[in-house]
Amino acid sequence: MKSFKGQSAMEYLMTYGWAILIIAIVLVALFELGIFGGSTLPTTCVAQSGFICSNPTYDGGNIAFTIGQNSGSTYYNVNAVFLNSSELATFSAASSSFPSALTQNIVAATMPAGSTYSAKVQAWTSSSAKATLGTGISGQIWISYETTSGGSTNFAEVGTFTGKAT
């Protein structure tokens, strides 16, 4: 009777070798995607329909971005704020103002449709501290505006912001 020990050992090594190789490839792919490091959180501003929100940066205290609108009409006395999740819970667009702890930042006296402006909003309130390097943040950027100069104030969500302090 012949012994097949050598063939059996070779099949054993090949089977487990392929399994280890596949696991190693998957781990490298996950590492490259940033699953393990957590340091590759992109800074993004996803605009709502009718708005422009691009080129966002976050320095731990302020969020800077390019803002615009495409409604077909001109907006007057445009102010912007950043609302994190706790501020969103207390804010209603039907109210007459943003939460009092927030600092409104004037974007433009007039904002014609299709135009863009550089904006900077404060990402922290008096009840929260500025973020340290590498700290993530997410929330929404809102504007208050008037459709006629001196008219009633309207509120609109410009976009959703996500970023990490750099």
Describe the structure in your own words.
It is built from two helices and eight strands. It has a five-stranded antiparallel β-sheet. A three-stranded antiparallel β-sheet has the order 2-3-6, with no helix packed on it. The protein has helices at residues 5-32, 85-90; strands spanning 44-47, 51-58, 62-69, 75-84, 105-111, 116-122, 136-146, 153-164. The chain starts with a helix and ends with a strand. The mean pLDDT is 84. It folds into two domains: 1-40; 44-164, Immunoglobulin-like (Sandwich), CATH 2.60.40. The longest helix is centred in the N-terminal third of the chain and has 28 residues, at 5-32. It is elongated. With 166 residues, it is an alpha+beta fold. It is 20% helix and 40% strand. A hairpin with a 3-residue loop joins strand 2 and strand 3.
